[in-house]
Amino acid sequence: MVVEDKKKKILESALKLFIEKGIDNTSTSLISKEAGVATGTLYLYFETKVDLISELGTSIQEESLESFLDLIESSVGYESLEKFWHERVEWGVNNPDKYKFMIQFKSSPYNIKNTNVKIPDHEKKLLNLIEDGIKNKILKDLPSKYISGFFSAHVVFTVEYIIQTKTKERKIFFETFFDGIKYTN
Amino acid sequence: MVVEDKKKKILESALKLFIEKGIDNTSTSLISKEAGVATGTLYLYFETKVDLISELGTSIQEESLESFLDLIESSVGYESLEKFWHERVEWGVNNPDKYKFMIQFKSSPYNIKNTNVKIPDHEKKLLNLIEDGIKNKILKDLPSKYISGFFSAHVVFTVEYIIQTKTKERKIFFETFFDGIKYTN
Amino acid sequence: MVVEDKKKKILESALKLFIEKGIDNTSTSLISKEAGVATGTLYLYFETKVDLISELGTSIQEESLESFLDLIESSVGYESLEKFWHERVEWGVNNPDKYKFMIQFKSSPYNIKNTNVKIPDHEKKLLNLIEDGIKNKILKDLPSKYISGFFSAHVVFTVEYIIQTKTKERKIFFETFFDGIKYTN
Amino acid sequence: MVVEDKKKKILESALKLFIEKGIDNTSTSLISKEAGVATGTLYLYFETKVDLISELGTSIQEESLESFLDLIESSVGYESLEKFWHERVEWGVNNPDKYKFMIQFKSSPYNIKNTNVKIPDHEKKLLNLIEDGIKNKILKDLPSKYISGFFSAHVVFTVEYIIQTKTKERKIFFETFFDGIKYTN
DNA sequence: AATGAATGAGCATTCATTCAT
DNA sequence: CATGAATGAATGCTCATTCAT
Fold it and tell me: Taking 80 as the threshold, does the pLDDT of residue C76 lie above it?
């Protein structure tokens, strides 16, 4: 219990500082100080700074996908896509720090995707659903990878917008995505 | 002339290395070596490493907007928006290094927006046009800031997609943006 | 009994690791792990790492002299010297790890000769015997300290040679020492 | 000139401290302080601490052999061997610090013999001479490696003895070596 | 302007030692 | 007696920056 608390505290401090100052401008000694532990203690829980970064990034990615995976079994249409979109946006809005770090981490050299199991899994499912949607003339005939990428980019942008403006709106934002990809004859 | 050439060489070397190895993993001495000048010479043109980074980021941002500003005088509609969008996307596709760095720089702790002059200027013009579009029922009644932000995010994502897939497609991608924001009754 | 077993286990583990990796590249926590005890346990038996090293060095030195002391009562001549020499060489050949460590320890900064009791004792006896030998024209008229030092150096070198070459020869090696110091008119 | 002075100063300081405190108990920052330069300066001249140690060890070994190599062409007998022996002993007595370090370095894990060219070269020559001596019944019929090793061990011991006692004697010491290996029927 | 040797604060990491359990 | 999590001083090394030439 207490042990896990200390590790948790270190991860939280790291997260906070990484967002504030950037990963490379945050020293391990500063993380320790922020977490209220000695410099050596950090190395009791993480072999290297890179390990700490990786574990933080991976654990947040997995956490962010937990609820998402439950939803992914249905078929694609306005409602199901909206549900997915909403779930992701809401997670980002409710976990702004983790969200910011996840974005930063994903495109960083520290993200050496190898132990990721869940993530490609969920991506594949989303792609399958999109391809179904295209076949069934619910979605435009675009590369499925373009649509899934667009989905992610749209979510990221919307999360940032909502955090900044603190707006309660959601539906109209989702529709800027869905109207862009829905099938029209 | 010769002086400016040296400064240019340093900026070019920095850009190349920043993309290759990341900003924080690129030492000033390595930049100097790559540029073929002495370590001290870099400090003749830039007070600090941060200044070099800022100047590089700002100059690329400005460069990317040069052509954009000329276009911005017209009125908003499918054609003019498509022109803007196309211009931005094409610049990104044709200057992938500068583009990558610009994205990286914008969300880095080094971008302490303060010396920006041109950028808010052009943003204001885009916002004005969007607001006109909303009033004239060409665009959906959304916050104009949301639309301009969506525009940028869509461009960024599309550039990345095009670079990765080397596709020649453009129009269908633009339409995923425009169909999302165009007025429908 | 059990207590002494634990201490013994620590000393044995330390010896093994010191030879394998060197004293300074062996951490106390590694010694503990090798000995199968907790890190803190080591400090129940030794105040500091230096104390552990000293005690190990001293105890091995004493052990190596145990048999030697029994022999030292006789008079100097080819046979008695050969007996001494042989005893020492054989102990080194049969205890190569302890021997290696002893040599290493003797010339290390950790050997701050102060607690030595037995050692000078035995050296004095050897010196007395040598001085008798000189008086009785059995040995060359050399400083007795030179002869006793030569004795030790010759033993050390020979032990190393025998370990490396695994030779069974002894007598001819002893004679390279004895012929060098025996009286000739 | 000045540059070489700085490097020389660092090597001298390192030598002094290595003997005083041992290699592993001497930090690079202490070496820098002793040499009167900044911590970073050391790394201008040596890539790593290990490189510094290696260069120091190798350069001293080579220096110690310079005069030795000239002598090695003659044939083996009392006089030539005495000349070799004397040369080596005198170098050790005149360079006590370098000598102590060389001994320490030779048997340390830092001596990864690979770039040594001169050293095995000279050893081979000495072995050849000894083998000639054995064939010509000048030396005892012992393994030539034993004799060459004995030579080195005898020199080392004698150097230590002379340094400690400050004696001027030489010839009688050499004879404790030569009488031990010379042919007798 | 240009050079590059020199600086020293700062970093990631280790490890002898302590102490609450 | 025994444990092992926790400590923090110390280490080897880097690098932005300076300055005498």
Answer: no
C63: amino acid identity, one letter:
E
Say whether the CB atom of D49 is under 7 angstroms from strand F. yes
Chains A and D touch (3+ CB pairs under 8 A): no
Q: CA nearest B182: which of A1, D31, A184? A: A184
Tell me the per-residue pLDDT of D95-149, one tens digit each, with 9 for 90 and over: 999 999 999 898 888 887 655 556 677 788 888 889 999 999 999 999 999 999 9
SS (H, E, C) chain D: CHHHHHHHHHHHHHHHHHHHHCCCCCCHHHHHHHHCCCHHHHHHHCCCHHHHHHHHHHHHHHHHHHHHHHHCCCCCCHHHHHHHHHHHHHHHHHCHHHHHHHHHHHCCCCCCCCCCCHHHHHHHHHHHHHHHHHHCCCECCCCHHHHHHHHHHHHHHHHHHHHHHCCCCCHHHHHHHHHHHECCC
Q: Which residue has its C-alpha nearest to nucleotide E7's C1'? A: D38
Rounded to whole angstroms, the Cα distance separating B32 from B16 reads 12
How far lies B138's CA from each of A174, B134, C59, C93, in Å? Answer: 19, 6, 95, 97
B27 to chain A, any CB pair closer than 8 A? The answer is: no
Q: By CB neighbour count within 10 A (0-12 exposed, 13-18 middle, 19+ buried), where does D184 fall?
A: exposed
Q: Residues C4-63: pLDDT tens digits?
A: 789 999 999 999 999 999 999 999 999 999 999 999 999 999 999 999 999 999 999 888
Would you place residue C1 in the very low, low, confident or very high pLDDT band (cuts 50, 70, 90)?
very low
Q: Which residues contact D161 (CB under 8 A, 6 or more apart)?
A: C145, C146, C149, D167, D173
Spatial separation of the C-alpha atoms in residues C108 and C104, rounded to whole Å: 6
Interface with B, mutate which of A102, A179, A181 (most B CBs under 10 A): A179
Cβ neighbours for C117, distance < 8 A, ≥ 6 positions apart: none
Report how far residue D76's alpha carbon sits from residue D133's, in angstroms, rounded to the nearest whole number.
6
What angle do the packed helices A78-94 and A144-165 form, to 10 degrees? 40
Residue type for position B159: V
Per-residue CA distances from C177 to C78, C138, C148, C169, D147 (Å): 11, 14, 11, 14, 12
Is residue C178 within 8 A of residue C78, CB to CB? The reply is yes
Residues constituting chain A = 185
- pTM (whole model) above 0.85: yes
In this prediction, residues B34-58 reach a mean pLDDT of: 96
Is residue C43 less than 8 Å (CB to CB) from chain D?
Answer: no
Using DSSP, state whether B139 is helix, strand or coil. strand
User: Is B24–A25 a contact, with Cβ atoms under 8 angstroms apart?
Assistant: yes
Residue bearing the bigger pLDDT, A167 or B67: A167
Q: Which domains does chain C have, with CATH numbers?
A: 1-46 (1.10.10.60), 50-181 (1.10.357.10)
Cα first-last separation, chain D:
60
- What chains are in contact with D, requiring at least 3 Cβ pairs below 8 Å? C
Cα–Cα nearest to D145, from D160, D128, D167: D128
Sole residue written with tokens 């150097």: D159
Q: Does B116 touch chain A (CB under 8 A)?
A: no
Using CB atoms, which chains have 3+ pairs under 8 A with A?
Answer: B
CA distance D85 to D93: 12
Q: The dihedral of CA B96, B97, B99, B104: what is its sign? A: positive
DSSP state of C179: H
CA D19 – CA D25 distance, rounded (Å): 10
Tokens of C179: 């012929």
Residue C24, SS3? Answer: coil
Asked whether C93 and C160 are in contact (CB, 8 A), the reply is no
Contact D23, D12 (CB under 8 A): no
Helices (H) and strands (E) in chain B, counts: 9, 0
Given a contact cutoff of 8 angstroms between Cβ atoms, the answer to whether D184 and C183 are in contact is: no
* CA nearest neighbour of C170 among C183, C182, C180, C155: C155
